[in-house]
Design goal:
The protein is an alpha/beta fold. The chain folds into two domains: 2-74 and 170-244, D-Maltodextrin-Binding Protein, domain 2 (3-Layer(aba) Sandwich), CATH 3.40.190.10; 80-166, Periplasmic binding protein-like II (D-Maltodextrin-Binding Protein, domain 2), CATH 3.40.190. The chain has nine helices and eleven strands. The strands form two sheets. The chain has a six-stranded mixed sheet with strand order 2-1-3-10-4-11. Strands 7-6-8-5-9 form a five-stranded mixed sheet.
């Protein structure tokens, strides 16, 4: 059975919903993982198709982009943030969320080429760090940003900063396969993802029942901040980022 790895964050729920509610569910085993683990699963051969952080793509010997959909943003994304108690030009150390692959590389590019700062970098597991708000500055990704950002004086949205720097949207993750003969599954994936993206109201309702975000907040985030269609502008932004790695 085909092994599919997908990121376990809120922004991936349309993909998960589609995969669970279309014909592909009978042909594949779905593994829901952190971004860094999705990358590891694909790299080690555990998964055949995966939602891969684009910062990991140059590490792969071979891959094929297998879907017309991705996780991207054109401006503010809300869930990839530099949170700080001081202004950017005063930052001494940035703690890096160890769930991140792409965002850690993005922030280093922005620091060097856009903000013109040279902080020290320190990796940290924010899931097990109850005192993360005591850090001067933190790169934080994922659903935890919605609440944790309130503990900091300053919040810098990395996708928004990338847009200001390059004028381009940003792609955080895209779907890749190991082989070239997944055209059949590519069609199934696109059908599944289209269904999920057209079901944002239901997804928002379901998610809000057991989480701190309201139905309106979830829908606003999924429909307004995340760009799912992997169009030419997003591909251009992705290629620009990869060229700078």
């Amino acid at each position: 059975m085909l092994q599919i790895s997908v990121v376990s964050y809120l922004n991936s729920l349309p993909f998960i919903y589609g995969l669970k509610n279309t014909a592909i569910v009978d042909k594949a085993c779905l593994n829901i993982e952190l971004p860094v683990n999705c990358a590891k699963s694909f790299y080690t051969g555990k998964s055949d198709i995966a939602l891969i952080p684009v910062g990991f793509l140059p590490s792969l010997n071979s891959f094929n982009i297998v879907s017309d959909y991705c996780i991207g943003a054109d401006g503010e994304v809300k869930t990839v943030l530099l949170l700080s108690q001081v202004k950017i030009n005063e930052i001494k150390t940035i703690h890096l969320d160890n769930h991140s692959v792409t965002s850690a590389k993005l922030i280093k590019i922005l620091a060097e080429k856009y903000w013109k700062i040279s902080p020290k970098w320190q990796e940290v597991n924010l899931e097990n760090d109850n005192k993360h708000d005591k850090h001067e500055s933190v790169l934080m990704i994922g659903d935890k940003t919605f609440q944790s950002s309130k503990s900091y004086k300053y919040s810098y949205d990395l996708s928004q900063e990338w847009k200001a720097f390059t004028g381009l949207p940003f792609v955080f993750a895209c779907w890749v396969s190991r082989q070239q003969n997944h055209e059949y599954f590519s069609e199934l994936l696109n059908t599944a993802f289209s269904k999920g993206i057209n079901s944002l109201e239901q997804i928002s309702f379901d998610y809000s029942k057991n989480n701190c975000l309201s139905e309106e907040e979830v829908y606003s985030y999924l429909s307004g901040n995340i760009k799912y269609n992997f169009d030419e502008s997003l591909k251009k932004g992705m290629n620009k980022f990869i060229s700078m790695l």
